[in-house]
Amino acid sequence: EDVKLGVFLGFTGPLESLVANMAPGAETAITEVSESGKFMGGSTVTAVRADTTCIDSAAATAAAERLITSDKVSGIVGGDCSGVTTAALTNVALPNGMVMISPSATSPALSTVEDNGLFFRTAPSDARQGVVMSDIIMDRGFKEVALTYTNNDYGKGLADAFQAAFEAAGGKVTISTPHEDGKADYSAEVGALQSAGGEILVVAGYLDQGGKGIIQASLDTDAFDTFVLPDGMVGDALPEAIGDDLNGSFGQAPGSDSEGAGKLVEMAGDAYNATSPFSAESYDAAALIMLAMQAANSTDPAAYKEKVMDVANAPGEKILPGELGKALDILAAGGEIDYVGASNVELIGAGESAGNYREIEIKDAALSTVGYR
Amino acid sequence: MTMNRNVLYFGIMAVLLIIVGQFQSWNLSLSILNLCLISAIMALGVNIQWGYAGLFNVGIMGFAALGGLAAVLISMPPVPAAWAAGGGGVLLSALAGAATIVGCIVAYAKLPKGGIRTAIIVAIGVIGFFIMRGIFVPATDAIESVDAAKTGYLGGLGLPVILAWPVGGLLAGGVAWVIGKITLGLRSDYLAIATLGISEIIVAVMKNEDWMTRGVKNVNGLSRPVPYEIDLQQALWFQNLCETLGQDVVTFSSIFVKLCYAGLFLIVLLAIFWLSERALKSPWGRMMRAIRDNEISANAMGKNVTARHLQVFVLGSMVVGIAGAMLTTLDGQLTPASYQPLRFTFLIWVMVIVGGSGNNMGAVLGGFVVWFFWVEAEPIGIWLMDTLTSGMAEDSGLRAHLLDSAAHMRLMTMGVILLLVLRFSPRGLLPEKTGHH
Amino acid sequence: MELLNALILMANFVLVPALAYGSQLALGALGVTLIYGILRFSNFAHGDTMAFGTMAVILFTWWFQSMGINLGPLPTALLALPFGIAICAGFVLATDKLVYKFYRQQRAAPVIYVIASVGVMFVLNGIVRFIIGPDDQAFADGERFIVRARSFKEWTGLEEGLTIKVSQGITVITAVLVVAALFWFLNRTRTGKSMRAFSDNEDLALLSGINPDKVVMVTWIIAAALATIAGTLYGLDKSFKPFTYFQLLLPIFAAAIVGGLGNPLGAIAGGYVIAFSEIMVTYAYKKFVGYLAPGDWSPDSLLQLLGTNYKFSVSFVILLLVLLLRPTGLFKGKSV
Amino acid sequence: MSFLIGENMTGGYGGADILHDCTIAADQGEIAVIVGPNGAGKSTAMKAVFGMLNIHTGRVMLDGEDITALTPQARVAKGMAFVPQTSNVFPTMSVEENLEMGAFLRRDNIQETIDQVYELFPILGDKRRQNAGELSGGQRQQVAVGRALMTQPKVLMLDEPTAGVSPIVMDELFDRIIEVARTGISILMVEQNARQALDIADKGYVLVQGRNRYTDTGQALMNNPDVRKSFLGG
Amino acid sequence: MIKVDNLSKRFGGFYAVNGATLNIATGSITGLIGPNGAGKTTLFNVIAGVHAPTGGTVMLDGEDITGLSPHTLFHKGLLRTFQIAHEFSTMTVRENLMMVPGDQAGERLWDAWFKPNLVRAEELELRKKADEVIEFLEISHVADELAGNLSGGQKKLLELGRTMMVDAKIVFLDEVGAGVNRTLLNTIGDAILRLNQERGYTFCMIEHDMNFIGRLCDPVICMAEGAVLAEGTIDEIKANEHVIEAYLGTGLKNKEAKA
Ligand SMILES: Nc1ncnc2c1ncn2[C@@H]1O[C@H](COP(=O)(O)OP(=O)(O)OP(=O)(O)O)[C@@H](O)[C@H]1O
Ligand SMILES: Nc1ncnc2c1ncn2[C@@H]1O[C@H](COP(=O)(O)OP(=O)(O)OP(=O)(O)O)[C@@H](O)[C@H]1O
Ligand SMILES: CC(C)C[C@H](N)C(=O)O
Ligand SMILES: [Mg+2]
Ligand SMILES: [Mg+2]
Q1: Dihedral, CA atoms, C64, C70, C76, C79, nearest 10 degrees?
Q2: From the CB coordinates, do chains D and B have 3 or more pairs under 8 Å?
Q3: Which residues cross the membrane (chain C) (predicted)?
Q4: Contact E208/D166, CB-based, under 8 Å?
Q5: What angle is formed at CA B53 by the lines to CA B269 and CA E51, rounded to 5 degrees?
Q6: Are E231 and E219 in contact (CB under 8 A)?
Q7: Segment D109-113 mean pLDDT
Q8: By CB atoms within 10 Å of each CB, which of A151, B105, B153, B201 scores lowest?
């Protein structure tokens, strides 16, 4: 039997370059499982790509529709952006009883969305990240920050969460201003941010989008020299592109002490960049679906949706990327696993990642991990 | 001849949808159909403006967004806590704004012309603006902090969402009236960029005024004019129905829902089509064509060109607004960030031109054809790449690259289709019939 | 001292960036305005043509870099520019032959060209992403700064710094030169005049012995050159990413329209109007006023007229105001 | 055989034929005038001679050479010039630039010719910097004729050059045309101011419904009562 | 009927009309002549509301109509034709005529939608009228042709035909004769006379054909450089030295030499 999984990400549109590393992440897991020969008594798994466009709900809905009703997938990895994910979930997945595990939709609103237990995410809600980021900044002794966010549900949600946490802890946000991604010029934003003042600049954006533009322009004009980088900004591409000037900037991204992330990077090799944001989460999302199927011994979403939390959390044997074959064996034998994966998956609440964060700092124009929270 | 063409093209369209139904799925086919219907309505709206009157409105996106806004304002339940926190303030600031405008108008009318008048008007405007903002900003801050993750806005009226369709039309029409008053003196591409700009402004407001629309946090869970699949799946009569039809309950429930939507949309489409067609074929349509052809001359022949432009601008925008409200209803959510000119303005224009501007049938056909390929271009692109690369070695770099690029082939496929249609029938698939009366 | 600080602050955050951004828009708008002026349609594929040309330049730049050829302090891309222009021109001419020529023969309405250009835009979109991918590409090298804020502060002892990037300098100079050249070309040379004649009255141009094919060809070549130059300079200053080039289309059109379509001077003026209005209206004047105000007093509020989230809207409001006063733009553009 | 001749031309704009076996010709130094009712096909015949319209039968000869297949530009290069009846100026170019465009193919100094045109139509000299689109109807017509004169052609074809010009300018124009013809240039002209035109014409054609109805010398046509009554307004 | 008082119109720094003062008597056929660029068309354009005047007033039957828009003036019975034909080129000749009458029920959306019978009856009426005009202008064979495909002269005829579709008070004709066959022009002249006598139209016409002017017009006004140069009967005008110098000229010089 051949099982199909939908890889439902924004292959075109404003996040296309992030997705270039997310989709292979998910597909790595799929190939791994498929080639192990141990999945549900020797079934193979294939990935079917579909484009969310990240922004066009109608197109995303149609694509999800196609995945479920025409390609007959048994589970969906995706979507990527919170907006289209919500649309596809409520309009298509829910009525059709399809499981969706999103690697990257982090909007706090998704925690409470009505989902009949069909929706999970391997990314934590931004409500949590806001608190973590606030702690990190406070711990480093900064009391006054300027804040800019990418103007979408992710950026806004994260910025709100952060501002609330930071102000509750006694800090001051001098200005909170959105920026649009993919725009031609960010001089206006940088001018306003600099004028408002602040010791450092928090950039809740995307590293290859407006976020990078803002940082570049800030450095060029010497508006700020230290930046706080939340998940969407953490990736090798940024220090690579900007160089030594970024040294001293810090931030956090979902992730944990696990060796999982490193493993995935090894597995990815040169084919894609597994340290790119949400690449690891994509691998995990795909893995979780297949492991849950194995545990339920069924590809019927109604059956395996119950197993997702079980395989993701303790008790059981810890599973890292590259060990999916082992996990399948254990599950087939009726054993239990605690999937750790590339992003140290721990599902809480309504099925979202608990939110382990890796604190990073830029040193010598490269990311380095300085701790975990 | 044209009759045959109509039948032929719509026949082909039907066959395409059936093929999708048979080979992909009926669910997909129906959801394409639903979007086709909505697109057709939008295309009709644009056709009324461009095809009838030659108004180059590139602000479709804004009017569609206003329709979407109406859906939220009509159907979402009100948020009492938010109203308590800042509802009064918002109303008050609206009053202040209105008072400022009235003040300016009165000053303009009553005072003698000259520098002093200008100064006073500016003063009233500036002071009024700051008073308004002084009330407005704290009120909206208060509203937005009411459970921001879930609400943080005033909510709507909690009425049945279907009411939002006409209201969306009225809202879009009202705004169009104001815009038209300001911009309709502009010609061709100047009007185009002005309307484009205004539509960007409308969307920017929807994206940033969280107290009204939740901004980029989106409004989810709009109510529906048709039953929910989950409810159907549980309803006894529906299960029986499925049994008699020999259908799977889950699949058929979503098919059923889509059919309900399709029915509603079709009714709206037919009504608007009938009205448009009737108008076009009447002396009113002849007058509009004359205006489109030569404004100076039409004006000299006693036609009030400005008034007619405004009329047709408002009507067309209303139609787009209705379609916008329908679309948001179908989506079940309002995501202001999804209003992108490419999708909501250019694509609609492509529909009108590919279909045949000036011809209502053409606009409808354009809506169908273009939406169909907009959605199906992706699988077509992938299929194309697969076929192209099937001869290559499994591990060839080029093959991987080609397959990776398949998704981008969507735009490309779309472009190629567009260019081919325009090449082989430059005036659209169903060209306007000129010289007919 | 305080006054100097205030001035440098404005220069650093308003004047220099707006000049550079304005010039970038102007260079893009020149291409749009030229096509409109001569071939009489709004070319929506221009943004993607810029991306295509820049892509060609980048590929050559990489090649030169790999061979160790460079221009010292100047970016290698400048060396690659002529090659990029040649490729882009070739491509654009092919497009004309395959797409637009047919409509010219048909004497199609301008809107048909516009929509055809949307089709070309889609196709170009795909081609560029296909060849170079959707990602950011770095290709700038050489010296980055003419003046750097930190060094500036050290030299002058002022609190505020001033940055001028090499790319900004090149952009502004190029924009001015290109406009002057284009203006001279269109109004003073035989070929330039014949192009205007063609745009005015095609039939009569034929009757004057003007070769329409040549006019069209020259127009496209210049447009391709402009697109490539604009795209490359923009890419050097910011970054190259295909999607951004598509997004550039809107402000570019706004600039061309504010200035008056078909008029090169208008394109420049329009570029600056859009850039300055975006930046000045949304700038927070808090710090500026703080420097000027006596003593240590500084305002509490940001003194920002409108949030930067409305910066795009601001430029469109300005555009509207300009059009209401001058319906065909600052410099009396054409309208078809 | 005449210097310029459109022989047995039959053709139209794609629909039904407009011209039927129509022949018009002018010899060197000769003024040939075409008259006829509105819609008779006079302008169409001119366009056919200039290659702006496909004729499926018949041919056009210039100086003994068959030029039927040449494009309009190529005919300009061969020394033909044409003033169309409508939209015959470049509206957003200045008067002077309009004239320069007339001399587009010339490589010699054109200033002298420009001065001659200004002498002929003094008003144009005054308005040399003004855009042609802003001129009055009659002034425009003068620009159009001036533009054609700039070519220094061997054959000059004028489609109603005097429509809308004042009597004094019309006289100047006809005077000039006679002068031009005297230098050996062939002139082919459509006119509704038919009597004045036939008065100076060596040869006249009356075209009706795309066919030659009468062909004779200018004087003979003027004296033909049928022609006078039906086509020259009595 | 029309009183133009000290009217002026400036383009840039140039006065195209410069203090023109004239009267058009009710029931007259007033001729307007003058050298090219004298400002005749501009004068028409200002009177008909196409351009706003720089100064001066225009009265229609004692009512100040300065600066009113063309469509308002149309409904007051003031019609005009254009020197450069402004036909609706993508509509047929018949449609060009049928669209003219104002206040058609079918031009109101509500009636167009919901009162088809009313509209149909009205259309029949209009069509009949249009066909009469077409017949009269001898363009029946092109009645269903697109107006854009007409010959230059035919367009001029259509231009005139449009004024015949309604009951006008005063009609401004800008060189209807230019490019029109002289035999047909005589017929048109007859029609103008008939409209003038039978229906009481007042005409004001710009023309360069002195025979035509002479046959129809009394009085004749000659403009030059934006102002009125002379006014009188045709014979007075023809004899006026200023007019001869500026406008009429003294005939061909080269003719004899040629013969
Ligand atoms: N839009 C304009 N801009 C500048 N000058 C103009 C404009 N329109 C007309 N003029 C000038 O005004 C003067 C009067 O023009 P008008 O068209 O009224 O002349 P006219 O008397 O009708 O001449 P004709 O007999 O040639 O039609 C001309 O010299 C012309 O150049
Ligand atoms: N572009 C065109 N397409 C189709 N038919 C045309 C076109 N131009 C002219 N015709 C038709 O051809 C016929 C002859 O037109 P033409 O312009 O040659 O007349 P003409 O003799 O020059 O008349 P006039 O004296 O009015 O200028 C007319 O019946 C006209 O309707
Ligand atoms: C791909 C991601 C960065 C998306 C983002 N986290 C969102 O929720 O929209
Ligand atoms: Mg003619
Ligand atoms: Mg005139």
Answers
A1: -80
A2: no
A3: 6-39, 51-71, 77-99, 111-132, 166-186, 215-236, 305-325
A4: yes
A5: 155
A6: yes
A7: 90
A8: B105
User: A325: which DSSP letter?
Assistant: H
| D202 in contact with chain E, both atoms CB, cutoff 8 A | no
Mention every residue, 6+ apart, whose C-beta is less than 8 A from residue A262: none
Describe the crossing of helices B283-293 and B249-280 by its angle, rounded to 10 degrees. Answer: 80
Name the residue at shortest CA distance from atom 22 of ligand 1: E41
Task: Look at A175 and C284 and tell me if their CB atoms are within 8 Å.
Answer: yes
Cβ–Cβ < 8 Å for E161, E135: no
pLDDT score for A258: 67
Pocket of ligand 1 (CB under 6 A): D 127, 134-139, 164; E 11, 14, 16, 34, 36-42, 83
- Ligand 2 atom at minimal distance to the Cα of residue D41: 18
| Percent of chain D at pLDDT exceeding 90 | 55
Give the C-alpha separation, C132 to C125, whole Å. Answer: 11
CA of E194 to the centre of ligand 5 (A): 25
Tell if the CB–CB gap between C302 and A196 is shorter than 8 Å: yes
The one-letter code for the residue type at A267 is M
Q: What element of type H or E holds C145? A: strand C145-147
Task: Please give the residue of chain E at the shortest CA–CA distance from D34.
Answer: E181
**Per-residue pLDDT reduced to its tens digit, D176-214:** 889 888 888 999 999 988 888 998 999 999 999 999 999
The DSSP bridge partners found for residue C74 are C71
Q: Which of B183-192, C49-58, D129-138, E36-45 has the weakest average pLDDT?
A: B183-192
Nearest Cα residue in chain C from D96: C193
Residue A343 confidence (pLDDT) above 90: no
What pTM value is reported for the model? 0.90
**C334 lies in some domain:** no
Report how far Cα A103 is from the mean position of its chain's Cα atoms: 5
Look at residue A100 and give its three-state secondary structure: strand
| Averaged pLDDT for residues E92-119 | 91
- On whether the CB atoms of residues E127 and E94 are closer than 8 A, the answer is yes
Closest Cβ opposite residue D77 in set C193, C204, C209: C209
8 A C-beta contact, residue A296 and residue A307: yes
pLDDT at residue A53 in the model? 82
Determine whether the shortest distance from the Cβ of E101 to ligand 2 is under 6 A. Answer: no
Counted domains in chain C: 1
Record the tokens describing residue B278, joined without a space: 């009737």
d(C-alpha E147, C-alpha B351), whole Å? 29
In 3D space, the residue among E43, E176, E41, E224 whose CA is nearest the CA of residue D138 turns out to be E41
Of the ranges A287-301, B102-116, C174-188, E225-239, which one carries the lowest mean pLDDT score?
Answer: B102-116
pLDDT band at residue B36 under the 50/70/90 scheme:
very high
Q: Which domains does chain D have, with CATH numbers?
A: 4-79+153-231 (3.40.50.300)
Pick the CATH number of B2-78+155-424 from 1.10.620, 1.10.1380, 1.10.10, 1.10.3470: 1.10.3470
What is the residue with the minimal CA distance to atom 3 of ligand 3? A232
Q: How many CB atoms lie within 10 A of CB B83?
A: 16
**Where is B38: in which H helix or E strand?**
helix B26-47
At B64-110, the pLDDT tens digits run 999 999 999 999 999 999 999 888 999 999 999 999 999 988 988 88
Tokens 């099937």 — which residue? Answer: B390
Edge-to-edge strands of the sheet including E63-64? E14-24, E2-11, E55-60, E63-64
Q: Residue B173 and residue A227: Cα distance in Å, rounded?
A: 46
Please check whether residue E5 is in contact with residue E59, taking contact to mean a CB–CB distance below 8 angstroms: yes
Gap from B278 CA to chain E (nearest CA, Å) = 6
Contact E47, E4 (CB under 8 A): yes
Contact of C201 with D91, CB cutoff 8 Å: yes
Range(s) of the domain holding residue C310: 2-325
**CATH at residue C150:** 1.10.3470
Token pair recorded at residue A227: 């930046």
